[in-house]
Design a protein that fits this description.
Elements: H1 5-11, H2 18-33, E1 39-44, E2 48-50, E3 58-60, H3 66-77, E4 81-87, H4 102-105, E5 107-110, E6 117-120, H5 125-140, E7 144-149, H6 152-166, E8 173-177, E9 184-185, E10 208-209, H7 214-221, E11 226-233, H8 236-250, E12 254-259, E13 266-270, E14 275-279, H9 282-286, H10 291-313
Parallel strand pairs: 1-4, 1-8, 4-7, 8-11, 11-12
Antiparallel strand pairs: 2-3, 5-6, 9-10, 12-13, 13-14
Helix pairs in contact: 2-6, 3-10
The structure holds ligand PMT.
């Protein structure tokens, strides 16, 4: 059975660096609320579910963090302030463009003479320069805050703390929940302290349902914000129904559905009024365009409509 969300918080301790992160979130939000700008919380990457308190083994949710990291860049481009709540070591805005050995291969080591210098290879400057310029701009204007999680419990503590700070932005706050969040876990009081020993034979692991945090998030924590959740499925025939069911149940504004295999080039927007696809053609992909560019454009248009409707009511 799913435990209630309040019970989850009362039985799971916050991460050890929680107070530091809460302080950072508070300061960041207070600073940006003065400038009357729109703000987005982007969640990204998968949460883990530990099998032991001293964790050697864990269950993971699938997500590289591409959706979240790419989207954060496009939100910055559109003038949003960004809180990027992401899984440790998942992809991050800007650095995501240089994964593996790619960045090293772009550099040249010049060891001639008394001093060593490092330069970007001339044929790579056009690739690095625009990304570096956007990165520098985001850093210098202080418009992005990076906060990390690993376990589903860390994620929930930080998600609630972020929402508490975002509530003051009311309708100017956008929540873009792209993280892949565990639905099953082992409650803290049922987890062994130490590494499960293979000598005792194959363990039988019993997982319980994690409470859906979308429920208190929408109704209590940020009731005036524009909340967008993602729905991941592997069976296309149930995607839209599941997305619409989630919207009906949690009463938020938009669900973006995607199928694991086609998530790079197709998503379905499910709104209270209708459904529509946002697609990247093969040609657009070959030209280096990213689906997140169009997703973010469409989400911002929905957020703008929502803001106009809210303003009109007053
Ligand atoms: O990172 P990439 O590799 O680019 O992949 C991107 C993605 C496929 C992970 C992303 O586009 C995506 O679909 N993310 C959401 C995955 C997910 O958690 O789907 P879900 O059907 O399990 O959950 C639906 C919603 O409920 C989510 O918004 C989640 O935040 C919320 N949830 C889930 C579990 C839980 N216990 N509480 C929740 O509130």
């Amino acid at each position: 059975m799913a435990s209630h969300w309040e019970e989850f918080y009362s039985t799971h301790l916050p991460p050890s660096d929680f107070e530091d992160n809460r302080k950072l979130l508070k300061e960041f939000c207070e600073r940006h609320n003065k400038s009357n700008q729109r703000i987005v919380l982007v969640t990204s990457g998968g949460t883990t579910v530990p099998l032991e308190h001293n964790t050697v083994r864990f269950v993971d949710n699938f997500s590289a963090g591409t959706r979240g990291a790419a989207s954060a860049e496009y939100f910055l481009e559109h003038g949003y302030t960004v809180i990027f709540l992401h899984r440790v070591k998942s992809l991050e805005p800007f650095t995501r463009h240089f994964t593996g050995q790619m960045f090293m291969d772009m550099l040249e080591l010049n060891e001639r003479g008394p001093s060593t210098t490092i330069t970007v290879k001339p044929d790579c400057v056009d690739i690095v320069a625009p990304i570096l310029a956007r990165y520098k701009n985001a850093q210098e204007t202080g418009r992005i805050l990076y906060v990390t999680f690993t376990t589903v419990s860390d994620y929930f503590w930080l998600l609630r703390a972020a929402c508490e700070c975002l509530a003051a932005f009311e309708a100017k706050a956008l929540l873009y929940l792209a993280a892949a969040v565990s639905d099953f876990y082992i409650p803290s009081n049922e987890m062994p302290t130490h590494k499960i020993q293979s000598g005792a034979g194959a363990p039988t692991i019993s997982l319980q349902l994690v409470p859906k945090m979308l429920a208190p998030l929408v109704s209590l924590w940020v009731p005036h914000a524009y909340v967008v959740s993602f729905k991941l499925e592997t069976d296309d025939s149930i995607l839209i129904t599941k997305a619409r069911d989630a919207m009906t149940k949690y009463k938020h504004k938009l669900v973006i559905g995607n199928i694991l295999q086609s998530r790079r080039y197709r998503v379905v927007f499910v709104t209270p009024e209708n459904n529509y696809e946002v697609i990247l053609t093969r040609e657009q992909m070959l030209n280096g365009l990213e689906l997140e560019d169009s997703i973010v454009d469409n989400v911002i248009a929905c957020h703008s409509d929502f803001l106009s409707a809210v303003t009109y009511k007053f």
